[in-house]
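Both lines are retained for reference:
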Amino acid sequence: MSRQDYIFTSESVSEGHPDKVCDQISDSILDALLAQEPEARVACETFATTNRVVIGGELGLSDPTKLRDCMERVEDITRTCIKDIGYEQDKFHHATCEVTNLLHEQSAHIAQGVNAAEGKDEGAGDQGIMFGYAVRETPELMPAPIHYAHAILRRLAEVRKDGTEPTLRPDAKSQLSLRYVGGKPVGVTSLVLSTQHAEESQTSADILAIVEPYIRDVLPEGWLTEDTQWWVNPTGTFVIGGPDGDAGLTGRKIIVDTYGGAAPHGGGAFSGKDPTKVDRSAAYAARYLAKNVVAAGIAERCTIQLSYAIGVTRPLSIYADTHGTGEVDPAAIERAIDQAMDLTPRGIREHLSLNRPIYQRTAAYGHFGRAPDADGGFSWERTDLAEVLRRSV
């Protein structure tokens, strides 16, 4: 039996964290391409440092005119994204930072393995393993530590952007250590928050006074006690932040993006990749399946693993683990999953409607545990497959 009494920790980073700035720029460019052509191919990487953003990678559109138009818009897209995040610092400003665009057309050798052709179905965009996870710890069926670490930073971003807290700045990190009793989270043993701020005269105590009410608002009642350790801006001054304080790169926050370390990760990043890349789409499918298994009452906790080979249509393997909480044999879940959903790359995209410009919003505060949007965003968070799976096992 797995441990029932323990402390587990997860961290999150804000939309203004240097790596998250890069993720959002990459996904903004992806959205622009998908708005032009739903079958666009994109592999976009962004690097940011003091007063500079460098963007590279591969793009593919069937219409060369649309491709040129998108290439010409990359700088404007980048500046708009930085402005939306809120950077107007002397050494990282949306209007004055240097933007270098090194994007180019997709490799024909990659395309030939992925694209459908006469006598050949569309294949996966790469080899790899992808994991999905769900657990009955929050209403969203997410691990509680990462879920509430995200919630704290989202709330602080809201009050920063609406002017309620004008001295907060975009760059921030949170970390929650939760105590589990009987396998359930019951309280916060320690809370770490480092947030960029406007004035060097502001002390850690000043920042604590600003952020504490918002933190208490988002955490479940009773989780913060007199025994909780608070570490707010523990190094003191945090005025220099964002890409001026530390370089950023697309794809460096894969644990923040997923389950905060509570579940395995296949290693592939999400942002900047179109949904033919199974690093992204199959990870979304695996979350969708795991969440529906738990929503169906088949298990309290579920991990799904999928594996693929580049250019090959079908997944090479489907694996389910209910961690001793399942009502049925995991092999029965694997069979039900295979029958309930077409797990080819195109099947995933069609089932979850992934060929849409829905990705920039995923690039901060986690790709999972979010409410499905009316336009199809976060479609992998639906639980519409729960009844099908329940009947199948």
Remarks:
- The first strand starts at residue 6 and ends at 13.
- The radius of gyration is 21 Å.
